[in-house]
Amino acid sequence: MKWDTSDSTTLKQKSQVKGKMNDKTLVFSWWLWVLAILFKLGFTSYSPFLPLLIALVVATYLVVYKFRREYHWTKKVVIMSLELLFTVMSYSSRSIFDTTDLMITTMITMVYLFYVNLNGTNVYELYFKRFPESHKGETFMEHLKNLSKR
User: Which range marks the domain in which residue 107 is found?
Assistant: First the structure.
């Protein structure tokens, strides 16, 4: 990543590959997917079911409806399948509004928002501009090929 310091009041991060999303750590679902795997394997009692359920709804709206032209059908299928898989994986028989899980979810969300801010962006910029733009004109297989070149 390169830093543009031409504006002395703020630092603006410029992507090395214009229009493509390089930093997958800015995708909140990836954080939740790791937590779902840890939950499923028994490494933690925290179930990220509620935030994953919300992520499934948000992804459905953004990928299938709002930015349907930007996402190739193969990417839509993969994204929605992954969101659904990890949501189901994190299901627990306890209440989705478990107090401990809600507190942990709040803390994780706050850390994520802080991390996004440290990277010089915000949730609106990521989910309504950068992510859709990075998926334009690329199938899922092309995306995998591009990832393997990095």
Answer: 26-140
Q: Is 35 within the bounds of a domain?
A: yes
Q: What is the dihedral of CA 23, 90, 129, 126, to 10 degrees?
A: -50
Q: Model's pTM, two decimal places?
A: 0.81
Q: Are 65 and 80 in contact (CB under 8 A)?
A: no
**Is pLDDT at 10 greater than 80 in this prediction?**
no
Distance CA 142, CA 121 (A): 26
> What single letter denotes the amino acid at residue 137?
G
On whether residue 51 sits in a domain, the answer given is: yes
Per residue in 79-136, pLDDT (tens digit) is 999 999 999 999 998 898 999 999 999 999 999 999 999 999 999 999 999 999 988 9
Q: Following DSSP, what letter does each residue of 10-66 receive, concatenated?
A: --EEE-SSTTS---GGG-HHHHHHHHHHHHHTTS-S---HHHHHHHHHHHIIIIIII
Q: Which helix (H) or strand (E) holds 131?
A: helix 131-135
- If one counts the domains in the chain, the total is 1
- Is residue 134, in this structure, part of any structural domain at all? yes
Establish if 86 belongs to a structural domain: yes
